[in-house]
Every structure is written in C-alpha cells, then in structure tokens.
C-alpha cells in the first residue's frame, strides 16, 4: 500500500536541510508526498520545486488535509505553532510524526500528550540520537548489567552558527517568543538521551546560558546539570558556536565497569583490562533510520519508538533549566 504523506510547516529547516525530511519521504518506497504546506506560499513553492515532482502546495494545513486526505503527516513548523497543529491532527485521528520540541513549553506539549493518550493516537517524535551506535551499545551495557553502577552521562552537541537559519527560511529561530534558541532545539536531544538511558526522573541542579558569540536574543550556548533520585549525574551542553560546517559532539556514559564514549566518528570502550576503539558512525543518516522506525511501528500497529510523552518529559527538564537560568 502506498502511504500518502502530507507535510505541514515546511518553513522549518528540517524540511530540506539537516534532517531533509521531504527528501526522505520522497525516497522511501511506497510513500508519496501529496501536499506541502507553509504559511508563506513562497516557501511552500520553494520546497515543492526542490522535490521536483509538482507536489501541490498550501498555506492552510487544514485545507491541505481536507483536500489530500493523507494517511500520515510529517509535521514541522515554527515551535510556537506546533502544539496547535498537533492537537488538530490528534483530534482528527491522523497519525503523524512531529519534530521536537512540539511546543513552546511542557504545558503545551503535556496537553497534547494527554489528548493523544485519551484517543490512543499515533504521535511520534524523531529523537534521532537514540539511533546512534553509541546509544545502542550503551543500552545493551545497561540492560545486561555489564556497565556496572552508573556514575554519569555527558552529552555535547555544538553546531555551526545560527546564521544558517536565515538561509533556510527559519529566521524565527532568533526569536525566543517563537521558541528559538539552542537548548530546546539541540539540548533537548541530550536530555532525552539521559532520560531514555537512565529510565529515571531528573532534577536540574545547575544551568547557565550565553549569547556572547552571536549577540542575539536567544542563547547560543547552554550547559545543564542533571541528577536522578538514585544519584546518576548528567551534563548537557548545546550550542551554535562551531566555527565551520560540522559538529563538535561527544557522548559518554561511565559506570563502575565500563566507560563508553563516542567522538569524531569513533567509539571508545574502556574497562579495567582493555581500551578499545571501534567505528562509531551510523550506517545511514540518523533521520532516515528514525523515519523508517516510525513508519514501521505505525504499520505494525505499535506505539511510536519515541512519543509525545517522551517529548513532554524532555520539555519539562528544559523548562526547569530556563527557570533556573532566569532566577539568576
């Protein structure tokens, strides 16, 4: 069966850049893009032309859905518009995947989560970092007990200048009222990994932010310190200060038996008896894997690999970090 897919809010850069979701859905077998929407017609037309198949364009996602009757929706859009779109999709029983953060704060995302639970909706979030080879190895070590007593996790994701959003029709990322900034966009990945791997709730015990590099209204570097009830510590760093195209990234989990770290495409596993390095690059773009896993779960009638509830939990931590930053 061909899955008819409609895309909302394609002014979000992940439509054609970084994740490149429109390209992914265009390339996956048995999927067809039947509609592309953005409030700016010029942006919707640009995205459609880039795909090159004459996909119909709309400025109103409700009209697009009424006209095209999609089986599945790729939901993007400005962060301050996401929760309203998500509620509409849930209320109309349309399965979808939506980029994080799904809203401006945890209250908005929590309302969507409650509604989705009440209607047993399929509402997925592509938390792509869960598909890193490092994450898979960490999960195996934790499940088998071979990591030992967990001490701490560390996550750093420092991406290039936020000026790239200008070229990608997403200048709203410079406006905190629209949900811009690196913590809710990038840092949320590290927070989700911490929650995913520890399986515990967390307390934010420290947070700081800076806009020193770019001087914009939104932060360009953030550090958040976490602690679970059992005493596992976490440090999350995210930013937009990397001076060229690429990423300064590092992932680390440390236990009493193993330290597992990933950096520069390599995975390092250190035990009392060995210090081994292996390839750590994923076999394909993480966004492709996320979409494949999400569609597979939906086709099988299963729950999403990562859901709106997971996004809600991560947003609660982001909110707590911002509260601490503002209190200083």
UniProtKB/TrEMBL annotation:
Question: Which superkingdom, per the lineage?
Answer: Bacteria
Q: Which Gene3D superfamilies match?
A: Dihydrodipicolinate Reductase, domain 2, NAD(P)-binding Rossmann-like Domain
The GFO/IDH/MocA-like oxidoreductase domain covers which part of the protein?
136-257
Q: Where is the Gfo/Idh/MocA-like oxidoreductase N-terminal domain?
A: 4-123
Q: Name one GO molecular function term.
A: nucleotide binding
Which InterPro entries does the annotation name? Answer: Gfo/Idh/MocA-like_OxRdtase_N, Gfo/Idh/MocA_Oxidoreductases, GFO_IDH_MocA-like_dom, NAD(P)-bd_dom_sf
Q: Which PANTHER family match?
A: BILIVERDIN REDUCTASE A
This chain belongs to the protein called: Gfo/Idh/MocA family oxidoreductase
